[in-house]
Predict the 3D structure of the following.
Amino acid sequence: MKSIVGRTFTKNKIQLIQSGKSYFDLLIKLIIQATESIHIQTYIFDDDETGNLIVDALKIAAAKKVKIYVLVDGYASRNLSSIFIKNLKKQNIHFHFFEPFFKNNNFYFGRRLHHKMIVVDAKYAIVGGMNIADRYNDCPNIKAWLDYAVFLEGPIVKELYVLCLKTWNGFKVKRNLKPSEEENITFEFKENESSLCKISRNDWVRTKNEISTTYKEIFENAEQQITIICSYFIAGRTIRKQLRYAIKKGVKVRLILASQSDMKIAKSAERWMYDWMLRKNIEIYEYQPTVLHAKMCVVDESFVTIGSFNINDISAYASIELNIDIDDRTFAKKVTQNLDTIIKEDCIHVTAAIHHKTNTIFKQLYHWTCFKIFRITFFLFTFYFKQRE
């Protein structure tokens, strides 16, 4: 794939991380070793075993006078009890809900904070698709949902730190930088350990469409193969048009999708699109072992984008999303090998023959209904009077 132009990439040390115990072990280690600050921003923070493991680690850090800021989405984490929140605040842990434009007990109106990241001491960061909850961890007799993140060290972490501060403060336009934001932080890693990375964001209300632009450039510039792993793939007209363009050029497109999903209506809406995908010679693979929650794309074994962005209109227009774009052939090859293994060992290849054999007229009608409900619900409950300047 040709390099994406018009973007500022910096050299950083990166590591691909899969959901499960190893991810949360790293998260806890970073929290406990923090000396200055911790920012956690996530869509879901559950009051369960995993959530309380993270809280226990945060309490240890707070006892060392580390400044801690936890920002969670006001819709997805609305079930957190007042007792849970009070216990955090008693430990001098700053806690906020990301609020919509309007809400009451029965109605939620506005965009959601969907990105998932942790930034420690402005030196270390994790960005990906995992929330803080048992279902992303390896619990007894329960396999973690499949998801991915990247562990980052380098200049991009400073950018993520500033983004955390701006998000915490409600994206105020005019705000003086704190000394810690202006501080020059040095990172020690070898040249052959570095990869070119950049932050990519979507927040349509604030005219941020960087991830959508990344995917547009992926479909335009791909030369051989695009592999997308996505938990809720319900492509709108724009993405479908871009996909058709790539396929006409002879680019092979592979989709790794969920077989079992936490949102049955979304999965049924996705299956309504299988006929269209198969007619366009898109290869479909359904992941079998557990729920698939990943959001990642690798192109021509040279470029990867990974984070919270699903390919649907909710991510494009209704949520605040965060991805990391990685322009590095070595890293991209490792990701491709990982996805190749998943396709070979953990997926069923949904061919046209299999799809038509199992897809009765009643199922197709149900899938069509779910697709329409999904689309109508999106337009009814995520509406903006105008984009912010």
User: Anything to note?
Assistant: Residues 383-389 have pLDDT under 50 and may be disordered.
